[in-house]
Amino acid sequence: MRGFVEHPLVFKDRVLGVVALFTRVPLGPVSPKPRRLVLSLGGKRLRRVEQMPTVLRDGPYRLFFYAADREEPPHIHVEREDKIAKIWLEPIRLQRSGGFNRSELGRIQKVVSEHHAELMEAWHGYFDR
Questions:
Q1: What are the two backbone dihedrals, phi and then psi, of residue 36, each rounded to the nearest 5 degrees?
Q2: How far apart are CA 55 and CA 116, in angstroms?
Q3: Distance of alpha carbon 113 from alpha carbon 91, whole angstroms
Q4: For 3, how many CA atoms within 13 A lie in the half-sphere containing its CB?
Q5: Res. 112: pLDDT tops 80
Q6: What is the pTM for the complete model shown?
Q7: Cα–Cα distance, 129 to 44 (Å, whole number)
Q8: Using an 8 Å Cβ cutoff, are 99 and 82 in contact?
Q9: How many CA atoms are closer than 13 Å to the CA of 60, on its beta-carbon side?
Q10: Angstrom distance (rounded) from CA 74 to CA 70
Q11: Per the CB 3.0–4.6 Å rule, which of 50, 93, 104, 113 could disulfide with 100?
C-alpha cells in the first residue's frame, strides 16, 4: 500500500504547517521513516525538520515523538494547534506544559494513561529497531 503521510513542519518548537510526504512502504500504526528535510523560508535556511511520527490521535490531540528522541527515556509529545506538551511515560508525568492550561493538561494525562501500553509499544517498536 502506498500513500501520503502527514508530518508537521516545525521551526523553533512552533508548528508552521504540515508537509505531506509520499511513501511507497506499507503504512502501519506508526508512520514510516521518511528522509530528513532541509527547508528554506524567504531564502533563509531553516533547521532540519526531524521526523515526527504520529502514534495516536484522540479528539483534538495528536500524540507523537521526534525521531531524535532516541537517547531520552520514553515520552510522548502532545500537540493541539500551536501548543505542544511533553509527557514522560515511565512514570507518567508532565515534563513541559507547552502552553496548555491546567485542566487541559489533566485531560491530556488521562489520554496518555488510557493509552499507556499502546504508547510504550509504539516507542519501543520505533526506537528499538
A1: -70, 150
A2: 11
A3: 10
A4: 8
A5: yes
A6: 0.62
A7: 35
A8: yes
A9: 10
A10: 8
A11: 104
**Dist CA 2 CA 62 (whole Å):** 22
Helix (H, G, I), strand (E, B) or coil at 33: coil
How many other β-carbons are positioned within 10 Å of the β-carbon of residue 37? 14
Q: Mean pLDDT, to the nearest integer, of 33-57?
A: 57
Query: Distance (Å, rounded) from C-alpha 2 to C-alpha 92?
Result: 35
Retrieve residue 23's grid coordinates. Answer: 511513501
Q: How many CA atoms lie within 13 A of 117 on its CB side?
A: 1
Q: Would the pLDDT of 90 be above 60? A: yes
Residue located via cell numbers 509520499: 22
- CB-based burial, 84-114: b 16+ in 10 Å, e otherwise: bbbbebeeeebeebbebeeebbeebbebbee
| 59: pLDDT strictly greater than 60 | yes
Helices 102-114, 116-127: inter-axial angle, 10-degree rounding: 70
Q: Give the tens place of pLDDT for each residue, 115-126.
A: 999 999 999 988
**Alpha helices (runs of H) in the chain, residue ranges in sequence order:** 102-114, 116-127
